[in-house]
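Notebook p. 47: complex prediction with phenylalanine.
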Amino acid sequence: MIRDDLLRLESEAHRRLSEVRSPAELDEVRRAYLGKKGSVTQMLKGLASVAPEDRPAAGQAINDLKNRVSAEADAVMLRLETEAERIRLEAERLDVTLPGRGPAPGRRHPLTKIMDEIKGIFMGLGFQIAEGPEVETDYYNFEALNMPSDHPARDTQDSFYISDNVLLRTHTSPVQIRYMEAGKPSFRAIMPGRTYRRDAVTSRHSPIFHQVEGLVIDRNVTFTDLKGTLTAFSQRMFGQDTRMRFRPDFFPFTEPSAEIAISCFVCKGKGCRLCSGSGWLEILGAGMVHPRVIANAGHDPEEWQGFAFGMGVERIALLKYGIDDIRYFFENDLRFLKQL
Ligand code: PHE
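Predicted complex, structure tokens below:
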């Protein structure tokens, strides 16, 4: 009789324990069987009504049951804890083999890179690097450079004037004067910097742009030195097979003056889209420094001669990177900048 009750109780306890889903439920089941008013406890109390000769065996059987249910409840507790731990670990799962997200490092702007390249080449040729102010006087920007007051570049339409005779420099050539004034010949320097002209923004023009000026003053400097220096520069900048084209040009501060082109480094002179079919790319203005300019800067043009040149950095950058719109350089769009 008791045996049947015990069997029934045990299978019921076993079923309920197997369905337990939380510590609270486990507690409830444990109490229902093993608590003060639990069924197993009740059965132990009921031993009093069992015949004395059956009592030890019945007591033993109930105690055994109690121990088994208790052990099973402990096992369920362990199962619940293990399950909770597994869920916690799953939530914290972390793939330590994933590559880290590195910080996004900055990089040099393409114009800065071209500038640095130009500077590096001229430093290798023995040139110093000098700078001058972007806000200039009429005297340095025009007058000392032998540009008469009726020169079209002096028009307020073409330059940003700050007052009657102060303006944003329209080229880096005024730095030639400042550099020569500040020292004694000989001179061999490049002067990179920002320049300004009142141009509308287009794919080819920007009111702010950059130039690199060059100046060499010494005794017995000739046009051959100009050609040799700029050929050496161009071949380092654009490739050893670069050929040069010198054409007569006019600048008030050089005489004679030349417009210098290099053979197109894409088609090697055959004609392509970059050189508009001509085979040549104009990159420089240059010439022998006008004696009056040397005199204006305080030196004797009978003793000292030299050459000067100027190049547009944006133009060189456009060519080198094969870009067709100067505005990319000023818009700071990372999608563009990251490609160069
Ligand atoms: N300053 C001239 C320009 O802006 C370039 C140049 C510089 C030409 C030096 C000759 C000598 O166009």
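Notes: The pocket of phenylalanine is lined by residues 171, 173, 213, 251, 254, 285-287, 308-310 (CB under 6 Å). The chain has a mean pLDDT of 93.
Next step: compare against the earlier run before touching the bench.
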